[in-house]
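Before relying on records like the one below, remember that each one covers exactly one chain. Contacts with other chains, cofactors or solvent are not represented anywhere in the record.
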Amino acid sequence: MAGQRVGVSRVSGGGSPPLVPWWWFVLAGSAVLLVLAVLAARHSHQARESAAVSPVAEQEHAVPPVEAPTPSAFMHVVLPTPCTELLDAPITEVIQATASGRPESGLYGSVRTSGSGKGLVSSFHEGLDIAPVSRDRSGRALDDVFAMAEGRVGYINRQPGNSNYGNYVVVLHADPVGEVYTLYAHLAEIAPGLTEGQQVAAGKALGRMGRTPFSIIPVSRSHVHVEIGLIANEDFARWMVVQRTKNSHGRYNGWNFLGVDPLAALRAQREAGAAFTFLAHLATIPVAFELLIPTSRRPDFFQRYPRLWEGGEFHGPALVLTASEAGVPLRGRAATAAEVKRLQGKKPLVLHADATVLGRNGKHLVSSTRTGWVVGPQGKRWLDVLLYD
Protein backbone atom coordinates (compact mmCIF):
# COMPACT_ATOMS: atom_id res chain seq x y z
CA MET A 1 0.00 0.00 0.00
CA ALA A 2 3.04 2.25 0.02
CA GLY A 3 2.67 5.20 -2.28
CA GLN A 4 -1.20 4.96 -2.46
CA ARG A 5 -2.84 8.30 -3.35
CA VAL A 6 -5.40 9.66 -0.97
CA GLY A 7 -8.86 9.79 -2.53
CA VAL A 8 -8.24 7.13 -5.17
CA SER A 9 -11.04 4.56 -5.44
CA ARG A 10 -10.49 0.82 -5.70
CA VAL A 11 -11.98 -1.14 -8.60
CA SER A 12 -12.96 -4.77 -8.28
CA GLY A 13 -10.48 -7.14 -9.78
CA GLY A 14 -6.77 -7.29 -9.61
CA GLY A 15 -4.12 -4.96 -10.86
CA SER A 16 -3.07 -1.47 -9.89
CA PRO A 17 -5.82 1.13 -9.38
CA PRO A 18 -6.14 3.73 -12.18
CA LEU A 19 -5.11 7.34 -11.43
CA VAL A 20 -7.82 10.08 -11.54
CA PRO A 21 -6.78 13.37 -13.17
CA TRP A 22 -6.70 16.52 -11.02
CA TRP A 23 -9.32 18.35 -13.08
CA TRP A 24 -11.90 15.67 -12.20
CA PHE A 25 -11.90 16.84 -8.59
CA VAL A 26 -12.48 20.44 -9.67
CA LEU A 27 -15.49 19.47 -11.78
CA ALA A 28 -16.96 17.26 -9.06
CA GLY A 29 -16.60 19.97 -6.44
CA SER A 30 -18.26 22.55 -8.68
CA ALA A 31 -21.18 20.18 -9.33
CA VAL A 32 -21.71 19.65 -5.62
CA LEU A 33 -21.67 23.39 -4.97
CA LEU A 34 -24.20 23.94 -7.79
CA VAL A 35 -26.58 21.33 -6.37
CA LEU A 36 -26.34 22.85 -2.89
CA ALA A 37 -27.05 26.33 -4.28
CA VAL A 38 -30.15 25.10 -6.15
CA LEU A 39 -31.48 23.36 -3.04
CA ALA A 40 -30.89 26.45 -0.91
CA ALA A 41 -32.70 28.69 -3.40
CA ARG A 42 -35.67 26.31 -3.55
CA HIS A 43 -35.92 26.20 0.25
CA SER A 44 -35.79 30.00 0.45
CA HIS A 45 -38.56 30.32 -2.17
CA GLN A 46 -40.79 27.85 -0.28
CA ALA A 47 -40.20 29.77 2.95
CA ARG A 48 -41.22 33.01 1.28
CA GLU A 49 -44.37 31.39 -0.11
CA SER A 50 -45.29 30.10 3.35
CA ALA A 51 -44.77 33.55 4.86
CA ALA A 52 -46.80 35.30 2.17
CA VAL A 53 -50.21 34.85 3.84
CA SER A 54 -53.20 36.47 2.14
CA PRO A 55 -54.70 39.61 3.76
CA VAL A 56 -57.78 37.59 4.78
CA ALA A 57 -55.61 34.94 6.41
CA GLU A 58 -53.62 37.66 8.17
CA GLN A 59 -56.84 39.07 9.60
CA GLU A 60 -57.93 35.59 10.69
CA HIS A 61 -54.68 34.75 12.45
CA ALA A 62 -53.49 38.16 13.61
CA VAL A 63 -53.74 38.80 17.33
CA PRO A 64 -55.45 42.16 17.90
CA PRO A 65 -53.33 44.60 19.88
CA VAL A 66 -54.32 44.84 23.51
CA GLU A 67 -54.90 48.45 24.49
CA ALA A 68 -54.07 49.34 28.03
CA PRO A 69 -57.20 50.73 29.72
CA THR A 70 -57.12 54.46 30.31
CA PRO A 71 -56.83 55.02 34.06
CA SER A 72 -59.48 57.26 35.55
CA ALA A 73 -58.45 60.59 36.99
CA PHE A 74 -61.24 60.02 39.51
CA MET A 75 -59.33 57.27 41.30
CA HIS A 76 -58.43 60.05 43.71
CA VAL A 77 -60.91 62.85 44.35
CA VAL A 78 -60.84 65.98 46.48
CA LEU A 79 -63.97 67.87 47.51
CA PRO A 80 -64.28 71.14 45.56
CA THR A 81 -64.43 73.41 48.63
CA PRO A 82 -63.36 73.34 52.31
CA CYS A 83 -66.87 72.05 53.12
CA THR A 84 -65.76 68.62 54.39
CA GLU A 85 -69.35 67.66 55.29
CA LEU A 86 -70.64 68.15 51.75
CA LEU A 87 -71.55 64.50 51.22
CA ASP A 88 -73.10 63.89 54.64
CA ALA A 89 -74.53 67.05 56.17
CA PRO A 90 -78.17 68.11 55.63
CA ILE A 91 -78.47 70.15 52.44
CA THR A 92 -79.71 73.12 54.47
CA GLU A 93 -76.16 73.40 55.87
CA VAL A 94 -74.08 72.93 52.72
CA ILE A 95 -76.20 73.92 49.70
CA GLN A 96 -76.87 77.51 48.62
CA ALA A 97 -80.55 78.09 47.82
CA THR A 98 -81.83 80.43 45.13
CA ALA A 99 -83.97 83.48 45.95
CA SER A 100 -86.81 81.05 46.65
CA GLY A 101 -85.08 80.03 49.87
CA ARG A 102 -85.61 76.34 49.11
CA PRO A 103 -82.33 74.45 49.67
CA GLU A 104 -83.41 71.90 47.06
CA SER A 105 -83.11 74.64 44.42
CA GLY A 106 -79.33 74.43 44.74
CA LEU A 107 -79.23 70.74 43.93
CA TYR A 108 -78.97 69.08 40.50
CA GLY A 109 -82.07 68.28 38.48
CA SER A 110 -85.57 69.65 37.85
CA VAL A 111 -85.43 71.62 41.09
CA ARG A 112 -86.29 75.10 39.88
CA THR A 113 -89.16 77.07 38.38
CA SER A 114 -88.95 79.76 35.73
CA GLY A 115 -91.41 82.04 33.99
CA SER A 116 -92.69 81.49 30.48
CA GLY A 117 -95.46 82.82 28.26
CA LYS A 118 -97.80 80.29 29.87
CA GLY A 119 -96.84 81.07 33.44
CA LEU A 120 -94.41 79.12 35.58
CA VAL A 121 -92.73 75.97 34.36
CA SER A 122 -90.15 73.65 35.85
CA SER A 123 -86.52 74.28 34.92
CA PHE A 124 -83.36 72.23 35.19
CA HIS A 125 -80.23 72.97 37.21
CA GLU A 126 -77.15 71.30 35.67
CA GLY A 127 -74.91 71.43 38.72
CA LEU A 128 -74.51 71.79 42.45
CA ASP A 129 -74.42 75.13 44.31
CA ILE A 130 -72.14 74.81 47.34
CA ALA A 131 -72.44 77.41 50.10
CA PRO A 132 -69.35 78.96 51.70
CA VAL A 133 -67.88 77.85 54.99
CA SER A 134 -66.19 81.19 55.67
CA ARG A 135 -67.17 84.79 54.98
CA ASP A 136 -65.60 88.17 55.63
CA ARG A 137 -67.29 90.97 57.59
CA SER A 138 -69.13 92.09 54.47
CA GLY A 139 -70.57 88.61 53.91
CA ARG A 140 -68.33 87.81 50.94
CA ALA A 141 -67.26 84.18 50.62
CA LEU A 142 -63.64 83.38 51.48
CA ASP A 143 -63.53 79.70 50.47
CA ASP A 144 -61.02 78.51 47.92
CA VAL A 145 -62.27 76.25 45.13
CA PHE A 146 -60.27 73.15 44.24
CA ALA A 147 -59.93 70.86 41.23
CA MET A 148 -61.78 67.67 42.15
CA ALA A 149 -59.39 65.40 40.26
CA GLU A 150 -56.16 65.43 38.32
CA GLY A 151 -56.52 66.98 34.90
CA ARG A 152 -55.72 69.76 32.47
CA VAL A 153 -57.18 73.27 32.50
CA GLY A 154 -59.25 73.43 29.34
CA TYR A 155 -60.71 76.91 29.63
CA ILE A 156 -60.71 80.00 31.85
CA ASN A 157 -63.29 82.77 31.53
CA ARG A 158 -62.07 85.97 33.17
CA GLN A 159 -64.86 88.22 31.86
CA PRO A 160 -67.72 87.69 34.33
CA GLY A 161 -70.25 89.68 32.34
CA ASN A 162 -70.25 87.50 29.22
CA SER A 163 -71.73 84.37 30.79
CA ASN A 164 -74.28 83.35 33.41
CA TYR A 165 -71.41 81.29 34.84
CA GLY A 166 -69.49 84.52 35.60
CA ASN A 167 -65.80 83.79 36.08
CA TYR A 168 -65.38 80.07 35.54
CA VAL A 169 -62.76 77.37 35.03
CA VAL A 170 -63.16 74.11 33.11
CA VAL A 171 -60.82 71.20 33.88
CA LEU A 172 -60.59 68.15 31.58
CA HIS A 173 -60.00 64.68 33.04
CA ALA A 174 -58.98 61.32 31.57
CA ASP A 175 -61.30 58.34 32.07
CA PRO A 176 -62.01 55.04 30.28
CA VAL A 177 -65.15 56.65 28.83
CA GLY A 178 -63.12 59.49 27.30
CA GLU A 179 -62.70 63.15 28.23
CA VAL A 180 -64.72 64.25 31.26
CA TYR A 181 -65.12 67.89 32.25
CA THR A 182 -65.56 69.51 35.63
CA LEU A 183 -66.66 73.15 35.85
CA TYR A 184 -66.33 75.69 38.67
CA ALA A 185 -68.41 78.85 38.23
CA HIS A 186 -69.28 82.22 39.87
CA LEU A 187 -65.68 82.64 41.08
CA ALA A 188 -64.75 85.97 42.64
CA GLU A 189 -61.26 85.59 41.22
CA ILE A 190 -59.11 83.06 39.36
CA ALA A 191 -56.05 81.66 41.13
CA PRO A 192 -52.93 83.70 40.20
CA GLY A 193 -50.82 82.01 37.55
CA LEU A 194 -53.50 79.55 36.47
CA THR A 195 -53.37 79.12 32.68
CA GLU A 196 -55.19 77.15 30.02
CA GLY A 197 -53.38 73.93 29.17
CA GLN A 198 -51.83 73.70 32.64
CA GLN A 199 -51.76 70.28 34.29
CA VAL A 200 -53.31 70.38 37.76
CA ALA A 201 -53.39 67.87 40.60
CA ALA A 202 -56.47 66.96 42.59
CA GLY A 203 -56.86 69.68 45.21
CA LYS A 204 -55.17 72.41 43.17
CA ALA A 205 -56.70 75.81 44.01
CA LEU A 206 -58.48 77.21 40.96
CA GLY A 207 -59.86 80.40 42.46
CA ARG A 208 -62.03 81.83 45.22
CA MET A 209 -65.76 81.32 45.62
CA GLY A 210 -67.84 84.35 44.70
CA ARG A 211 -70.97 85.73 43.11
CA THR A 212 -70.14 86.58 39.50
CA PRO A 213 -71.88 87.84 37.46
CA PHE A 214 -72.71 90.45 40.07
CA SER A 215 -75.95 91.41 38.34
CA ILE A 216 -77.70 88.15 39.24
CA ILE A 217 -76.12 86.96 42.51
CA PRO A 218 -76.21 89.06 45.70
CA VAL A 219 -73.45 88.85 48.32
CA SER A 220 -75.70 86.84 50.64
CA ARG A 221 -75.92 84.05 48.07
CA SER A 222 -72.24 83.77 47.23
CA HIS A 223 -71.40 80.19 46.22
CA VAL A 224 -69.62 77.99 43.69
CA HIS A 225 -71.55 76.17 40.98
CA VAL A 226 -69.93 72.78 40.22
CA GLU A 227 -70.60 70.49 37.24
CA ILE A 228 -69.26 67.16 36.02
CA GLY A 229 -70.09 65.48 32.72
CA LEU A 230 -69.37 65.03 29.01
CA ILE A 231 -68.97 67.46 26.11
CA ALA A 232 -71.65 67.22 23.43
CA ASN A 233 -69.80 68.22 20.25
CA GLU A 234 -66.18 69.03 19.41
CA ASP A 235 -67.35 71.42 16.66
CA PHE A 236 -69.81 73.31 18.83
CA ALA A 237 -68.17 76.67 18.08
CA ARG A 238 -68.78 76.13 14.36
CA TRP A 239 -72.39 75.16 15.09
CA MET A 240 -72.86 78.49 16.88
CA VAL A 241 -71.47 80.33 13.84
CA VAL A 242 -74.00 78.55 11.64
CA GLN A 243 -76.73 79.60 14.07
CA ARG A 244 -75.45 83.18 13.89
CA THR A 245 -75.35 83.24 17.66
CA LYS A 246 -72.69 85.07 19.66
CA ASN A 247 -70.34 82.73 21.49
CA SER A 248 -67.31 83.88 23.46
CA HIS A 249 -66.35 80.49 24.85
CA GLY A 250 -65.66 78.12 21.94
CA ARG A 251 -66.69 74.59 22.82
CA TYR A 252 -66.77 75.49 26.54
CA ASN A 253 -70.20 77.07 26.32
CA GLY A 254 -72.92 75.90 28.70
CA TRP A 255 -75.06 74.64 25.82
CA ASN A 256 -72.31 72.15 24.99
CA PHE A 257 -72.07 70.64 28.48
CA LEU A 258 -73.99 67.49 29.42
CA GLY A 259 -73.80 67.18 33.17
CA VAL A 260 -74.66 64.44 35.63
CA ASP A 261 -75.47 64.84 39.33
CA PRO A 262 -72.17 65.92 40.98
CA LEU A 263 -73.32 64.90 44.46
CA ALA A 264 -74.25 61.40 43.29
CA ALA A 265 -70.93 61.05 41.43
CA LEU A 266 -68.89 62.15 44.46
CA ARG A 267 -70.75 59.76 46.73
CA ALA A 268 -70.26 56.90 44.28
CA GLN A 269 -66.54 57.68 44.11
CA ARG A 270 -66.25 57.68 47.89
CA GLU A 271 -67.82 54.24 48.00
CA ALA A 272 -65.79 52.74 45.13
CA GLY A 273 -62.53 54.51 45.89
CA ALA A 274 -59.71 53.83 43.42
CA ALA A 275 -61.99 51.43 41.50
CA PHE A 276 -64.31 54.29 40.47
CA THR A 277 -64.58 55.25 36.81
CA PHE A 278 -66.92 57.74 35.22
CA LEU A 279 -67.71 55.11 32.60
CA ALA A 280 -69.01 52.71 35.25
CA HIS A 281 -70.93 55.53 36.94
CA LEU A 282 -72.79 56.35 33.72
CA ALA A 283 -74.10 52.79 33.65
CA THR A 284 -75.90 53.43 36.97
CA ILE A 285 -77.82 56.50 35.76
CA PRO A 286 -81.50 55.77 35.04
CA VAL A 287 -82.67 55.90 31.42
CA ALA A 288 -85.20 58.70 30.92
CA PHE A 289 -85.97 58.28 27.22
CA GLU A 290 -84.93 56.54 24.02
CA LEU A 291 -84.97 58.12 20.56
CA LEU A 292 -84.94 56.70 17.05
CA ILE A 293 -82.96 59.17 14.93
CA PRO A 294 -82.62 59.05 11.13
CA THR A 295 -78.98 59.70 10.25
CA SER A 296 -76.31 58.21 8.03
CA ARG A 297 -73.33 58.94 10.25
CA ARG A 298 -72.32 58.13 13.78
CA PRO A 299 -72.35 61.44 15.70
CA ASP A 300 -69.15 63.11 16.85
CA PHE A 301 -70.18 62.36 20.43
CA PHE A 302 -69.83 58.60 19.90
CA GLN A 303 -66.58 59.09 18.00
CA ARG A 304 -65.10 60.69 21.12
CA TYR A 305 -66.89 58.38 23.54
CA PRO A 306 -66.72 55.04 21.66
CA ARG A 307 -67.27 52.98 24.81
CA LEU A 308 -70.87 54.27 24.82
CA TRP A 309 -71.50 52.95 21.30
CA GLU A 310 -72.81 49.40 21.03
CA GLY A 311 -71.71 47.68 17.83
CA GLY A 312 -69.23 48.37 15.06
CA GLU A 313 -69.26 50.62 12.03
CA PHE A 314 -72.39 52.63 11.32
CA HIS A 315 -73.57 53.98 7.97
CA GLY A 316 -77.28 54.56 8.62
CA PRO A 317 -80.12 54.75 8.04
CA ALA A 318 -80.96 55.36 11.72
CA LEU A 319 -79.61 55.00 15.23
CA VAL A 320 -81.15 54.58 18.66
CA LEU A 321 -80.00 56.97 21.38
CA THR A 322 -80.62 56.28 25.06
CA ALA A 323 -80.39 59.34 27.31
CA SER A 324 -80.63 60.51 30.90
CA GLU A 325 -83.09 63.08 32.24
CA ALA A 326 -80.56 65.81 31.42
CA GLY A 327 -79.88 64.51 27.91
CA VAL A 328 -76.57 62.78 28.64
CA PRO A 329 -76.27 60.02 25.99
CA LEU A 330 -75.85 56.81 27.97
CA ARG A 331 -75.47 54.58 24.91
CA GLY A 332 -76.12 54.43 21.20
CA ARG A 333 -76.55 51.70 18.59
CA ALA A 334 -77.68 51.09 15.03
CA ALA A 335 -81.46 50.80 14.66
CA THR A 336 -82.91 47.42 13.81
CA ALA A 337 -84.80 46.84 10.55
CA ALA A 338 -88.07 46.76 12.47
CA GLU A 339 -87.27 50.10 14.13
CA VAL A 340 -86.33 51.70 10.82
CA LYS A 341 -89.76 50.82 9.44
CA ARG A 342 -91.32 52.98 12.16
CA LEU A 343 -89.62 56.14 10.91
CA GLN A 344 -91.74 58.81 9.28
CA GLY A 345 -89.50 60.94 7.11
CA LYS A 346 -86.60 62.65 8.85
CA LYS A 347 -88.27 63.31 12.18
CA PRO A 348 -86.78 61.70 15.31
CA LEU A 349 -89.19 59.35 17.05
CA VAL A 350 -89.49 58.82 20.81
CA LEU A 351 -89.41 55.05 21.27
CA HIS A 352 -89.78 55.17 25.02
CA ALA A 353 -89.98 57.69 27.85
CA ASP A 354 -90.09 57.04 31.60
CA ALA A 355 -92.30 59.62 33.29
CA THR A 356 -91.04 58.55 36.71
CA VAL A 357 -87.41 59.22 35.83
CA LEU A 358 -88.28 62.48 34.06
CA GLY A 359 -90.22 63.72 37.07
CA ARG A 360 -90.91 67.44 36.66
CA ASN A 361 -89.02 67.20 33.36
CA GLY A 362 -87.28 70.53 33.72
CA LYS A 363 -85.10 70.01 30.62
CA HIS A 364 -88.16 69.59 28.35
CA LEU A 365 -86.15 67.57 25.81
CA VAL A 366 -89.17 65.34 25.29
CA SER A 367 -92.76 66.26 26.03
CA SER A 368 -95.91 64.27 26.65
CA THR A 369 -98.84 64.99 24.32
CA ARG A 370 -102.26 63.45 23.74
CA THR A 371 -100.80 61.21 21.04
CA GLY A 372 -97.69 60.24 23.02
CA TRP A 373 -94.17 61.51 23.66
CA VAL A 374 -92.50 63.85 21.16
CA VAL A 375 -89.19 65.73 20.91
CA GLY A 376 -89.79 69.24 22.25
CA PRO A 377 -88.29 72.55 21.05
CA GLN A 378 -85.40 72.35 23.55
CA GLY A 379 -84.88 68.74 22.54
CA LYS A 380 -84.55 69.78 18.89
CA ARG A 381 -81.75 72.19 19.75
CA TRP A 382 -80.06 69.55 21.93
CA LEU A 383 -80.24 67.04 19.07
CA ASP A 384 -79.02 69.64 16.58
CA VAL A 385 -75.87 70.14 18.66
CA LEU A 386 -75.31 66.40 19.11
CA LEU A 387 -75.77 65.58 15.43
CA TYR A 388 -73.96 68.56 13.96
CA ASP A 389 -71.17 67.52 11.59
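The two ends are 99 Å apart (CA to CA).
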